[in-house]
Amino acid sequence: MIVHSTNMVSYLFSIGYQHYLNLPGQHAAAVAGFSFLAIAVTANHLVRKRWYELFYLAHIALVMMVLIAAFIHVSQINWAAKTFPIVGACIWGADRLVRWGKWFFYGYNNECTLVALPEGATKVIMKRAIHGRPASHAFLAIPRIRPFQTHPFTLACSNPATFVIGAHNGFTKSLHHFATMHPNRTLRAGIEGPYGHVPSVERFDRVVLVGGGSGATFTVALAMDWLRRTADKEAGATHSLDFIWAIKTRGTVFPTAHA
């Protein structure tokens, strides 16, 4: 995008056609370009971690802005050029429809129970199971806590779908506060997923798992799944698992391992 825009502007100035930049289609190109830059900035790991709501809403709004501005920009060329933003909009729209369909399927007659845990963690137990392996992740929506928002979390268990969520800012902080004020409260909720590739570690004779802090939710779920799967194997088979967990305080152990 940067190469395209800088070369085009330089070329127009070199041939004395800089007035071409005042056309509505070129203004739309600038809007699309700055929207792309804003997407790149808000996709930063720091933004995603500290202000996930901003990251999520900004991306939806900016993608829509890019598609509309790109359509206006290429409309000055020919009809064939319009097919590119149209196809992009169709793919993006289809993805949204599939996600909404999953939300309806998994959210219909579904609810969750909230349990406040020590060290600012919250255990979320869904009423229904999800067809996914522990340690994969799914998007969770609880309208009572944050309407029109979805957040990705690691599955601690798939039947029933269970999450152990640490409180930070925004949704997770409000979730833990609500769970503390209303112990074992049941709320309407929905999940969408699962996503992510989970390695099949049970086929190895020895497994070494390394986790750090509350991020060990993934490795704890993987270890518990390994125990369940190896217990079903033939008697006499030799299997071993080494679990290495780096933590700052002992208080981290209970909420993370409580799944």
Automatic annotation (TrEMBL):
GO terms for molecular function: ferric-chelate reductase activity. The chain crosses the membrane at residues 27-47, 54-74. GO terms for cellular component: plasma membrane. Residues 204-251 form the Ferric reductase NAD binding domain. SUPFAM superfamilies: Ferredoxin reductase-like, C-terminal NADP-linked domain. GO terms for biological process: copper ion import; intracellular iron ion homeostasis; iron ion transport. Keywords: Electron transport, Membrane, Oxidoreductase, Transmembrane, Transmembrane helix, Transport. The keyword RNA-binding does not apply. PANTHER family: FERRIC/CUPRIC REDUCTASE TRANSMEMBRANE COMPONENT, FRP1P. This is Ferric reductase like transmembrane component-domain-containing protein.
